[in-house]
Structures are given as C-alpha cells and as structure tokens.
Amino acid sequence: MSSSFNPFGLFCVSQQKLNDSLISIFRDYQIIEYYLKWIYSYMHKGNSNKNYKYIKDKTLGNLINLLKKLDYSDNSPWLSKDDYSYLKDMTEIRNYYIHKFFINYLDAEYHNDHNKLNNLYTQLIKDKKEIEKMCKNIVKFYNQVSSIK
C-alpha cells in the first residue's frame, strides 16, 4: 500500500517501505561518518592517510568532539558551535534508530497501537529527509576541505 493509512484509519505501512527508509538513514549516517573522518584527516596537520588511520575506529560522537577541538584550535573554525551542536543532535538521532527504534516499533505493533506506529513512521520519514540533507552538506564540506590540502 502506498499510503501510511488504509481506508479504515488503521496504520498500514509495508515492511519494505519501513525497511527502505531505515536503510536510507543507516546508509546516510555511514556516509556522514566516513566523510567526517576524512574531513578530520585533511584538517589535521600531517599525512591525511595516517590521520585517517588514527580516527577510523572512533565512534561518531568521539569523532565530532575531536573534530570540534581540532577545528577551534587555530581560532579560525570552519564550522560554528551551532553546527557542532547540530551534529551532536544528529548523533543522538542515529543512536535512537540503531538502539531503540525497532524495540519501540515492535512494542507498538505487539500492542496494536496504531497511533504510536503512525507517530514512529512519521518521525522516521521526517528524520530521513533531514539526514539526507545533512549528508549532502557534509559531502560538500568534505569537497571544500579536501580541495585545499
């Protein structure tokens, strides 16, 4: 069914639609994390490949903290404090989808809570669009940083 509601007002989203939206979020977060690691590697003094090896196993939250510290170390940051706050917020959203979304979804499904299912799916679609936009912006930022190194 193409709509998130059936004609009787009950929640009805295909499993494929739900999966596609989640895969999109997970993919975009992986892209964001990958490019942020390379941004850090290019911004840091020294060989970018060696810098990447240092940062490649860091969590997204740790990476953002390190990137902010590095970015502000020369008093000429590329990103504002609001940008870093936004990245932190997006990290919390990522953690929610990885650790809690399915539990909440399965719980709502088990209890036939159609309002909760609708709210979860609506938020998923809203977050998916926001993450897509953020992903495009991070790739643009990467292109700026990598072009000066």
Architecture blueprint of SSEs:
Blueprint: H1 15-43, H2 48-55, H3 60-72, H4 81-99, H5 101-110, H6 114-148
Helix pairs in contact: 1-2, 1-3, 1-6, 3-4, 5-6
Could you explain the architecture of this structure?
Mean pLDDT is 89; it is low at 1-10. The protein has 149 residues and is an all-alpha fold. The N and C termini lie far apart (49 Å). It has helices at 15-43, 48-55, 60-72, 81-99, 101-110, 114-148. It has 6 helices and no strands.
Q: Please give the count of helices.
A: 6
- The total of beta strands comes to 0
What portion of the residues fall into strands of 2 or more residues?
Answer: under 5%
- What oligomerization state is this entry in? single chain
Run of helices and strands? HHHHHH
Largest sheet: none
Query: Which class best fits the helix and strand makeup?
Result: mainly alpha
**Global shape:** elongated
Which residues sit in consecutive blocks of at least 5 with pLDDT less than 50? 1-10
Q: Which percent range fits the helix content? A: over 70%
Radius of gyration over all CA atoms, rounded: 19 Å
Q: What is the overall pLDDT average?
A: 89
In short:
With 149 residues, the protein is mainly α. It has helices at residues 15-43, 48-55, 60-72, 81-99, 101-110, 114-148. Helices cover 77% and strands 0% of the residues.
Keywords:
disordered N terminus, mainly alpha, 149 residues, 0% strand
